[in-house]
Amino acid sequence: MVYNVSDAQQPVRDMMKEIGPKLEEMGRVHDRQPDAFAHDIFQFIAGKGLVGYTMPKELGGGGRTGLEYATLIEEIAYYDAPSSLLAAVSQLACDPIIHHANDEQKKKYIPPSASGKWIPAFALTEPNAGSDAANQSTVATVDGDHFVINGEKIFIMHGDVCDFAVVFCKIQEGDSRDKVSAILVPGDAPGFKKATLMQKMGMKYATTGRLWFSNVRVPKSNLMGEVGKGFKYAMQTLDGARIGIAAQSTGMARRALDESIKYAKTRQAFGAPIAKLQAIQWMIADMATKVAAASLMTYKAAQLQDAGTKFGLEAAQAKLFASEAANFCCDRAMQIHGGYGYIGEFSMIEKLYRDQRVSEIYEGTSEVQRLVIAANYLRG
Ligand code: COS
Asked: Which of the residue ranges 18-27, 173-182, 286-295 would you say has the lowest mean pLDDT?
């Protein structure tokens, strides 16, 4: 069952019915290979306009709303969660450019990102700046009309294959301003080294990178927005990205539910389908209720975003609830399927279970979402 709150959602779901099974099949093949970016899936979805789905039309994007985007990510994740990341990460990385970069920068970076020609990355997290994102150690010093960047980033989605990165770092100038700022760094800049983080538990082919900057020189004109505003830009971007993870989680939770219903109706035990057992019915009821609540919380946050009002609280609540609901549903789906869930050759539950776990970790852990939610209620 799906919960449309707007007529605009159904065409997105109908489109995904056409291409979802292909993504699922491509994803299943990649999942069994060593971790590597799925260029074929990325190009396939980029060709359908899904990588630049929300980017402005005048810059080559689809100009779609936040609600359509949430529906898209939910539907892609229903078929193949890593493919939903492949669609989402470019929009996350380009979000601060769309909102804060100058026109020249927008014209340079957005059209090739929207078409999938370039792969962008959002480089915020560091070995010692994860949940404490303001604690940046990457530093840019000023040398004439250039910045010289030194530091390290970790857990950067698509960072290993990026054509450019929005790099958050502290700019140190003579007047000792050292607030977090954002600088656009080309992927081929000398001194910019990248690696793929291997043996990820799930989401294996929407890769995660480690980045090193060793005296990387970029023109000062690559500063994005204002000096010292980088942390705010990053937080605003994450507010939006959290709706995407809530949507992705909802898609995974809904798939776990649907697979469980299908299985419970056919699997026989004690002389009848296991769906006749109250133990199974209670699990299905709890899963279905969580899917319904996760959907509605996600769409509410997206609708607030589309209305141009504050949505950070609702995004954090949706992300927290939906990711924990997805964990619950994948776990119960595994329990209902038993051995047929645990062994990947029998069902998709084993993959779904691995792909899901990170949704409670990235774009802010569940604990960070609780911090954000509590701060909103306790403020003032
Ligand atoms: N939008 C705009 N501005 C925001 C903001 C938001 N959502 N959240 C915080 N800010 C601003 C605050 O208003 C404050 O500004 P002033 O200094 O002008 O008052 C500033 O940023 C610092 O805010 P705060 O004191 O709340 O920041 P903290 O360092 O305490 O950090 C948390 C708060 C933990 C919420 C933040 O670091 C965070 O979200 N961490 C997780 C990061 C994350 O999600 N990483 C995922 C990987 S990135 S893909």
From this structure: 173-182
For residue 370, give both structure tokens: 């609780």
Q: What's the CATH fold of domain 231-378?
A: Butyryl-CoA Dehydrogenase, subunit A; domain 3 (1.20.140)
Contact 240, 234 (CB under 8 A): no
Give yes or no for residue 38 having a pLDDT over 70: yes
For atom 47 of ligand 1, which residue has the closest CA? Answer: 363
pLDDT digits (tens, 9 = 90+) for 147-170: 999 999 999 999 999 999 999 999
299-314 burial: b if 16+ Cβ within 10 Å, else e: bbbbbbbbeeeebbbb
Q: Which of 6, 3, 23 minimizes the C-alpha distance to 84? A: 23
Mutate to test the pocket of ligand 1, among 229, 232, 359 (most ligand atoms within 8 A of CB): 232
Q: Which residues are catalytic?
A: 363
Whether domain 9-119 has CATH 1.10.540.10: the reply is yes
1-10, 81-90, 194-203, 253-262: lowest mean pLDDT where?
Answer: 1-10
**pLDDT tens digits along 44-57:** 999 999 999 999 99
Give residue 106 CA to ligand 1 midpoint distance, Å.
25
Residue 174 scores a pLDDT above 90: no
**Cβ partners under 8 Å of residue 278, min gap 6:** none
In the chain, domain spans: 9-119, 121-228, 231-378
Closest-CA residue, ligand 1 atom 46, reads 363
Q: Which atom of ligand 1 is nearest to the CA of 132?
A: 37
Q: Which residues line ligand 1 (CB under 6 A)?
A: 122, 124-125, 131-134, 231-232, 235-236, 238-239, 312, 362-364, 368, 371-372
The predicted pLDDT at position 289 comes to 98
Atom of ligand 1 nearest to the CA of 365: 44
In which band, very low, low, confident or very high, does the pLDDT at 177 lie, cut at 50, 70 and 90?
A: low
> Counting atoms of ligand 1 from 1, which one is nearest the CA of 242?
44
pLDDT for 1 equals 83
Contact assessment for residue 153 and residue 125, using Cβ atoms and an 8 Å cutoff: yes
Q: Tell me the fold of 121-228.
A: Butyryl-CoA Dehydrogenase, subunit A; domain 2 (2.40.110)
Do the beta carbons of residue 166 and residue 160 sit within 8 Å? no
